[in-house]
Each structure stands twice: as C-alpha cells, then as structure tokens.
Write a structure and sequence with these properties.
CATH superfamily of the domain at 83-96 and 105-227: MoaB/Mog-like domain
Oligomer: single chain
CATH architecture of the domain at 83-96 and 105-227: 3-Layer(aba) Sandwich
Strand content: 25-35%
Number of strands: 16
Structural class: alpha/beta
Helix content: 10-25%
Mean pLDDT: 86
C-alpha cells in the first residue's frame, strides 16, 4: 500500500511479506499486532505545508535533489557552474607531460589549481603557462577572456619585488581595479586581489604550498559566492598535537600552515603540521605565539558535512 490512502477506521497496516495465506484466510503473527510501528504515515508527518525544503544559497547535493524530486520539485533555479582560468607565469615552466630542457621545471600549479577548482565544483576552462613578459602575458589573458569567457582569473608567480615579479604590471596594463596587494599573512604577503574587466582576479605567489593555502583562504570564498552559496567555511578549534617553533617577529602576521587533522578516541579534533609527502586536510591559523589550541580550516572530502 505504499503511497495509497489508508481505509477509514484502519489502525494498522501489516506488511504483505509477514502475512501467510492458508485455507482462504490471512494469518498474521501475533507479535506483529503488538509492534509499536503501525506502518502508517500521516500526511504532513515529516514535512508540514509551506515548510522550506532547501534554503536558498545551499549547494545542492544528491540528498537535496532527492528531497525536492519526491516533493514535486521538477525544476529548480540554480547558479551556473563557475568557470575559472589559470595562468602560471615563469619562463622556466613547462606544462606537465612535456620534456624538460636544462633550467626548466614542470608546472605543478596548473595541475594543483585545476584539481582544487574541480573539488570546489568549478570548471577550469584553461590552465596555461606564460613567459616572464608583461606584454605577452597581458595579451594572453585578453585572448583567454575572449575565447574561454571565464568567471574568475587566477595567476601564479610574478608577485613580490624581484626582477621578474610583474603580475601587478600586467594587471595595470589590463585596466584592473586592485582591492588589495599586500596581506598581513605568510605565506602570501605579496598577493594581489582585485577586479579585471568585471571578473574576480587573484595573483598568487609561485610556490605550490603557498598556492594551496591561499586558494582555500582567498579563492574558495569567491567561488562560493559565484555558486550562490550563503554559508561560509568557518574556522574550528583544534588541539595542537605538538609544539611549534616561532621566530620573534612571527607575531606580526597571521601564519598559515598546512596540517593533518583527525578525531582522537575521545572525539576531540587534533591537528599537527603535515609532513612533506602527506596530504593536507586542514589549514592552521597561527598567531606566532605558543598555544595549545589553534583555529583551523578543515578542507577536503574527509570533513564534508562533519560538525565538530
């Protein structure tokens, strides 16, 4: 009788597979009649009329879609999947898979950012390398914007005060509107954030560990806004599993460090800095002072949906 109305006066429904038919009669086990579950669901028992099923600003997961489908939600208005373009600057860079010549290195950032974007539900429309030339890089970005029509732009490298640090010059050549080009955090003190032809632009430093940390701290929130999400990724307190050494001037900046987090036997969240070859599933927010607990941002699929 799944989905069927209950006959008037009916107090209990007994599942068909529990009953037996014998000599033209239906036999029902006595134990079944004493069960507290009558197998009857009243209309409105789970969801009342007018109740909000999924709040606006929620990223739709399979369970959300099931809930909407079962309650007549055939079509739902959503934000389109954000599109991002990645430009890794450095004349020494070679796209992964190509042969290396003397003085060259593989562009790990293009692979790293492509997968980080995918994990955020974003489409990476291109991930290319660019030589250390401001005019050429500016021309490449113009071409990417015209051809790929991204919603967000990310560059790596070329940030700082060195001879080949020209990202800010490229940004200026393209008529960008800077929002911030210096942050009081490490790594990432020299990081550029702004708007370029109406698109969010992030100029990140070159080292991949810094790129990973700054992506989650700066780029991911912008992607959530493009997704239409209202909930921000929050920081949670974790027990620091080992003391960390600091320099005297470390207290001047917020220090970001990749970490490994886990729940101990008592259900407490613990964290320690990740080893060199260890995957990062948390970002430690360190003040430069000795402390026993630290704010962390949990990242990756391991923590999705977990409330600590």
């Amino acid at each position: 009788m799944t989905g069927a109305p209950v006959p008037s006066g009916c107090a209990r429904v007994v599942p068909f597979e529990i009953c037996q038919e014998k000599d033209g009669k239906v036999l029902v086990p006595l134990t079944e009649l004493h069960r507290r579950q009558p197998h009857i669901r009243r209309q409105g028992q789970d969801i009342r009329a007018g109740q909000e099923l999924v709040a606006a600003g929620t990223r739709l997961l399979p369970d959300h879609l099931l809930l909407l489908a079962e309650n007549g939600g055939g079509q739902v208005a959503v934000h389109r999947q954000p599109r991002a373009a990645v430009i890794c600057t450095g004349s020494e860079l070679v796209e992964a898979g190509n042969p290396l010549r003397h003085g060259q290195k593989n562009s790990g950032n293009s692979v790293l950012l492509s997968t980080l974007l995918q994990a955020q539900g974003c489409l990476c429309v291109c991930a290319v390398t660019a030589a250390d030339d401001a005019e050429q890089t500016a021309a490449l970005i113009r071409e990417i914007i015209k051809r790929s029509q991204p919603d967000l732009l990310i560059t790596t490298g070329g940030m700082g005060a060195g001879k080949f640090d020209f990202t800010e010059e490229v940004f200026s050549l393209l008529g960008g509107e800077p929002l911030c080009n210096r942050f009081r955090l490490r790594p990432g003190r020299s990081t550029l954030a702004g708007m370029l032809v109406g698109l969010p632009f992030f100029g990140l430093p070159g080292p991949p560990p810094a790129v990973r940390l700054l992506f989650h701290e700066l780029v991911a929130p912008a992607l959530r806004r493009l997704h239409g999400e209202s909930a921000a990724s929050r920081l949670v307190e974790a027990v620091l599993d080992q003391p960390l050494p600091f320099r005297q001037n470390d207290a001047d900046d917020l220090i970001l460090k990749g970490g490994t987090a886990w729940l101990d036997a008592e259900g407490r969240l613990r964290v320690r800095p990740a080893a060199v070859l260890e995957p990062v599933n948390a970002i430690l927010h360190l003040s430069g002072r000795e402390e026993s607990t630290v704010p962390v941002r949990l990242i990756g699929p391991l923590w999705q949906g977990l409330t600590v």
